[in-house]
Design goal:
By secondary structure, this protein is of the alpha+beta class. It has a domain at 3-26 and 91-170: Ku70, Chain: A, Domain 2. Helices cover 28% and strands 25% of the residues. It has a 7-stranded mixed barrel with strand order 1-2-6-9-8-7-5. A two-stranded antiparallel ribbon has the order 3-4. It is extended and about 105 Å long.
Length: 275
């Protein structure tokens, strides 16, 4: 399993060397875009909107747009320094709270936590403490150049770190338009709705829920593939470098010029008259 982060996490004076592994994966079926005429995959280029020219990676800098077309440029050294300063900090559990106190809207991504060399005993201690207390730990961590708020909890005998949004990253529910105010509810309708909820209430079993669209899409792909309904991308022919083309043109021009010189007839000297 690929390690996405390696460091240490501490609570109090207890320090635990750990590794993080991505706990979930995206199963979306990726579809490529092809040119309809020749079935060649579409490529995207980085083009300067001012120069109208393709720009190479080494000619690109990062900047923050603080106003329309006004930027603060940040070079790689400055960004790397900030990143290093935050990455070097040990991840510290700063609070312990109850899981039910955090609304699911805050949760972002899950990572499995595994003890690194020499961290097994401290790892087991934290896991047991969280299980016995029924609490989760709140911490901050730097992952992929971004500082994240996170919680540490127990999941199926191992520790899991869940990154969560900072409060200012969650939009206000008051900004959502057209939400009806509390109207008078007809009691009969409410009782019927509650009966329906009661009939559909069950224990959550994630295995019984499947992605029907993804399954149908894969079946369609396999059906077309088996029926030979496929296309082959047109391979791009390598183009000769411009300097080679220029050299050939120059050689050909020189050859043509030489031929013309040879084709010009030499003037014969006039014979002297004799008396």
């Amino acid at each position: 399993m690929h390690t996405v982060w390696k460091g240490s996490i501490s609570f109090g004076l207890v320090n635990i060397p750990v590794k993080l592994h991505t706990a979930t994966e995206n199963k979306d079926i990726k579809l490529r875009q092809l040119h309809k005429e020749c079935n060649t995959p579409i490529n995207y280029q980085k083009v300067c909107s001012g120069c109208k020219k393709e720009v190479q990676s080494e000619d690109i800098v990062k900047a923050y747009e603080y106003s329309k077309n006004k930027f603060v440029v940040l070079d790689d050294e400055e960004l790397e320094k900030l990143k290093k300063e935050n990455e070097d900090k040990a991840v510290e559990i700063i609070d312990f709270v109850k899981l039910e106190e955090i609304d699911p809207i805050y949760f972002e991504r899950s990572y499995f936590m595994a003890p690194d060399s020499g961290g097994g005993k401290a790892y087991s201690l934290l896991r047991k403490a969280l299980m016995e207390s029924g609490k989760i730990g709140v911490a901050k961590i730097m992952i992929r150049s971004k500082e994240q708020l996170a919680v540490v909890r127990v999941f199926e005998e191992l520790l899991v770190m869940e990154t969560i949004h900072f409060p200012d990253e969650v939009r206000s529910a008051k900004d959502v338009p057209n939400i009806p105010s509390e109207p008078a509810v007809v009691q009969k309708e409410l009782e019927t709705a509650l009966m329906l909820v009661d009939q559909l209430t069950t224990t959550f079993e994630p295995e019984k829920y499947t992605d029907d669209y993804r399954t149908a899409l894969m079946e369609l792909i396999e059906e077309k593939k088996t029926g030979k309904q496929t296309v082959t991308a047109t391979e791009k022919q390598p183009t000769a470098p411009s300097n080679v083309t220029d050299l050939m043109s120059a050689l050909q021009a020189s050859l043509d010029k030489t031929k013309k010189k040879k084709a010009v007839p030499r003037k014969r000297a006039a014979k002297a008259k004799t008396s």
